[in-house]
Amino acid sequence: LREFLESFIIPGEAPIIQRILEFFAQKYYTTNIGSQDFVFKSEDAVFIVCYATLILNVDLHSGKVTVPMKEHQFGKQLKGQN
After folding, report:
1. What is the 8-class DSSP label of residue 65?
2. Which residues are catalytic?
3. Successive 10-residue mean pLDDT values, the chain, 82 residues
4. Are residues 68 and 60 in contact, defined by beta-carbon separation less than 8 angstroms?
5. Which residues of 13-44 are buried (b: 16+ CB within 10 A; e: fewer)?
6. How far apart are CA 57 and CA 50, in angstroms?
7. What pLDDT is stored for residue 80 in this prediction?
8. From 4, 72, 76, 80, which residue has the greatest number of CB atoms within 10 Å?
9. What is the per-residue pLDDT for 82?
10. Spatial contact of 27 and 47, defined as CB atoms under 8 Å apart
11. Which of 82, 70, 11 is CA-nearest to residue 46?
């Protein structure tokens, strides 16, 4: 995900970011589904983890966030998503 997102400038609009991550999730899922250590059950699971990771990055590095998310909060948000 990091290599993919570093290859271009991410626009600031949520619908565009969503489409980019949907494309990535689809490609990642179809490319890696046969791998022995592949843990995702669906494209949606890949998308949710990618989107959550992007939000966590914004949360950690944005000057507008006064109380950054804690590790247990991040885990709680993703619990049961796969």
Report:
1. -
2. 13
3. 89 91 96 90 94 90 88 89 80
4. yes
5. eeeebeebbbebbeebbeeeeeeeeeebeebe
6. 11
7. 86
8. 4
9. 79
10. no
11. 82
The C-alpha atoms of residue 27 and residue 24 are separated, in whole angstroms, by: 5
Handedness of CA 34, 16, 64, 7 (dihedral sign): positive
What span, in angstroms and rounded, lies between the C-alpha atoms of 49 and 78?
A: 7
Q: Spell out the residues 6+ positions from residue 64 whose beta carbon is closer than 8 angstroms to its own.
A: none
CA 17 to chain centre: 10
DSSP code of residue 4? H
CB 12 within 8 A of CB 29: no
Query: What do you get for the CA distance between the two ends of the chain, in Å?
Result: 18
